[in-house]
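G., the chain you wanted modeled:
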Amino acid sequence: MGKPQKKQGVRIPWVRDARDDDYDRLAIDIKPHPPYAIPLRCGGCGVQVSVRHANADDPDSRSSHFFTMPGRKHNPTCNFDLPRRGKELVDSSRGTIVRREGQWRLKCPPLTRPGTRGGAKSGSTPPRSPRATSGGGKPVVSKLRGPAIASAARIVQLLNSFKHDPETVAQFAAVAPSGRRNIPWDEFCVGPATAHQLAQKLVDGTAGQIPRAVWGPARTAKSTGQRRDSHVVMYAARHPVLIEGRQVKVNVAVRCKTGEWIGASTSSGEFLGYGYWELFPKGADWAQKAADRGWIELQLWVKEPWQVERWGGSVSPSKPKPIPPRRPPAPAPVDSDLAPTKPFRPAEQKERTAQSAARADEPEQRPATQAAVAAPDMSDSGAEPVVRPTAQTDPGTNDPLPTLDPQTSETPTPAAEDCPAPHVPHAAVPPPTTAPRFPPPPSCPPAVVSSPRTRVRSWLKRLRGR
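Predicted structure as tokens:
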């Protein structure tokens, strides 16, 4: 039977003063005067609290802290109400957490050590409890292994809200799988600030042969191995270890062949792994390898899905990345001369001229230089034929009127040689098609020829001027 506990208030991690400023317990020891203004209130619910300074002679006050006055209670929803939250832990643990001798104790589930078949070697672990075996001599598999690890994760979350106050941590403990040993919580469960202590014990060979729980943030979650068939969730501890007089960084990692068991697809939130933790690299010269690399890994190979608990992040099973759809090939360019649905436009005359000039199988077309020259036959294309003009006679004298020469007229027609077609590289000749073809346009724009009446009027004006 343990000694009776003194009646003392619940320790509080941070408070709010009269100026509505927040302070943690480190502000208590600031000299010459603490920066806060009294009265102080609980940071979770606002109940009035008091200050207790550190006293090495008083085992209940070895560190400075805030606490509630005896007789005062927190609000029902306050996260700093330790008795209420401890009771909730017991009620939701399905029997994996018990309240004994002023402590909340977690019952650790049994686990087979690595490298053994069916159990540990003789003398390497404490004797098994009579309750651990059935009448047939086979070990009984606990049905509460998953709830026990979930309860351990909830204890870690509770202690996180109290910022792992030493006196608050001392109110929790773990019961070894044999049931004959109580393990202090800070020795059974370590986190980012204390993971190097477990690694140092494994380096020195002073760690006991008991399963432990290690928790921390999931900084890295990925697949490893040449075939990507191994998965890891890891983070770097805050403090290094000493190996042969050299400081070596510690990486904490849980590894598994099944990524869904450890949430390997989510690098957020926190995780807790339970089992027999080991060091990597291994072998006879492991210390030299770790010193040369500058890091050592505190790792746990997960063999059962219940060994890892995740919280604080959206953990989802890993899914293969979707394959992006292939883009359809770009359509081949269509020759504008062969397009049946594209109508002929005068604005595109210059481009069509350049394309038609580059075609080797097409004869060069030249425009008519006189109005009396007949236009090419366009009966197939539906164009109107050019009408050849007749000779005009003077109504007074009945003499034939002279025909104006386009070469000497006021609006001369440019020659084809004056408008050479631009040089265009030869294009590939398209295959024959049954679509109707448009006639190639002339190489130069057609000449503007005046009507016969206009020419007669111009001739009469010249006669009058003489």
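The mean pLDDT is 75.

Shout if anything looks off.
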